[in-house]
Amino acid sequence: MKHLIIYAHPNPKSFNHAIKEKIISEIVKKGEEYSLISLYDEQFNPILDSPDFEALHRGKVLPDIAKSQTMVKESDHLIFIYPVWWFGQPAILKGWIDRVFSNGFAYYEDENTFIPYLTGKTATVFITLGTEKNILIQNGMEIDHFMRSMTFGTLGLVGISPVDVIPFYAIPKVSDEERKSMLESIVI
């Protein structure tokens, strides 16, 4: 199996970074392949702008997008790692999705039809949150509600299924021992 890790966190000392390293270790232990897109390290441009649209209308793809699209195409399983900020992904990841999952690559749409092109792929989304699980639940903000735009509205729409979400709650508040236990729970 070939995995593609899409990593979106700016701090190399973050728990998200530790998750990424643990996942890579697990993939290597299993003897499987992986590729990595580290959006902040690559200084990925998240802005969907005129050159993107002009290239698409000419049937072309910009070089930075072509690289990501090739990596997605060659993978069996996508692994997203990011913090939840304002109940969504960091802007750099949203911009990556906007630019990479384009019409003609991730799906086909015209006035009569919509066809997902990324069928046969699966995904796991590892997210970190600053809030405790029980606080979210008490306020009617269960994980499935605010992750639906990613699991169903983005990945599911283009044919990626199943999509598993692995949340890690209250990361700034838990002890190092609890974080270590969380990391040990990660299985690929």
TrEMBL record:
Keyword set, alphabetical order: Oxidoreductase
GO terms of molecular function: NAD(P)H dehydrogenase (quinone) activity
Domain (Flavodoxin-like fold): residue spans on this chain: 1-181
Keyword Oxidoreductase belongs to the record: yes
Gene Ontology CC terms, in alphabetical order: cytosol
Signal peptide: none
InterPro entries: Flavodoxin_fold (IPR003680), Flavoprotein-like_sf (IPR029039), NAD(P)H_dehydrogenase_qn (IPR051545)
PANTHER family, sorted: NAD P H OXIDOREDUCTASE-RELATED, NAD(P)H DEHYDROGENASE [QUINONE] 1 ISOFORM 1
Protein name per Swiss-Prot or TrEMBL: NADPH:quinone reductase
Organism, as annotated: Xenorhabdus eapokensis
